[in-house]
Protein: Phosphate regulon sensor protein PhoR
Amino acid sequence: MLDRSIGEFSRFIVIALGTTIVGITTGHWWLALCAGLAVYLIWVLLQQSRFDRWLANGRRGPAPTSFGVWGDISDDFYRLQRRHRKEKQKLHAMLRRVQDSTSALREGIVALEDEGNLAWWNPAAGQMLRLQSDDAGQPLVNFVRDPRFVDHVHQRMLGQDNDSREPITLPAPGDDTRILQMEVTRFGRDEALVIVRDVTRLHNLEQMRRDFVANVSHELRTPLTVIAGYLETLTGSGQAPRNWERPLTQMSEQTVRMTSLVNDLLLLARLETSERDSGRDRVSVRELMERVAGEARSLSGDRHQISVSCEEDCTITGDAGELHSAFANLALNAVKYSPDGGPIELRWNTDDSGGHYSVADSGIGIDSLHIPRLTERFYRVDAGRSRESGGTGLGLAIVKHVLLRHNANMSVASTPGQGSTFTLNFPPHKITAASSA
Structure:
């Protein structure tokens, strides 16, 4: 750039000296100098005008041929234009490859911009959501009107939603026989990507499994009731042979265990198949904790030190029976897996993130490897010990589904040999101060 400035200055000096010499020979050096500089200025302005017109026309074609500094500028622009054209071709080629690859995907991909408006989608998304080419620029929620999805998209676009939230499963627009799973991921400032999957087959298989478990569990109730009745009669009549006492006692215990398992399966099936609305009961936390503590003391038989700590009495909006089941499962598990004489504490506290119910025990503890799988059906950390305690392996699965229906979640902190703390976290909109209630 310095060399160009020096060159242009040298050119200016040469023109000034040349016109001055001509002016001296003619006797009008001042007039000749002004005329030479005027011609130079007009020449520079003419080149600038040509360059400005080229810029105004969108830089179509090569830059205009110029001399001097404007020629250097034109050459630079030409080189930049060629470089830009090559980069643009590379970007177009890359974009075509991305579009071709996404078009081959079975999953639908929708790109959103400007607060949820449709920017682009692949053929799979267009087929699943019934989108047409002229729908670009319209809000996606105009085509997927499920209230849960609408709320999810708005929160994601505003950056208020939790990234750990599970994908939303809902019927396909205009076709209730197809089930779609939709997941929204925000990127950039006002952009988001929606992944759409057809999970109809998995949904039908899961529904068949639920129906099968519910039907079989319901059918088992009647024969179990009959067996339990006859066993109670034989045991209580005193007419059974002495050598039958032990077998009858074991049969009664296993019948009770089987009945408990069937009841848990029916409860779990009901939680899975019923609507996600968790009810509108206002449940007093203090009363619920005292009732659960009484059940835990009854199961313990004074073998444990069970205490209740409730910092502030609140009410939880939800289903009273389901909440009791979740609270009681954690407390009874603590009794089953804690050694005799060990302390068990039921705590409740509130903060800005909501209400928190914790059960802390001094039991055997849980290795971190097992914690992610605790809410799976029939999953046991120690199968032998679980069978001895009479557990069905469904307690934490029931707790998980109760929490899903109350927009809550569970966290676990545990150290092997030092006990565990299970915490149920309820959102603020589910919690009301007892005085307000």
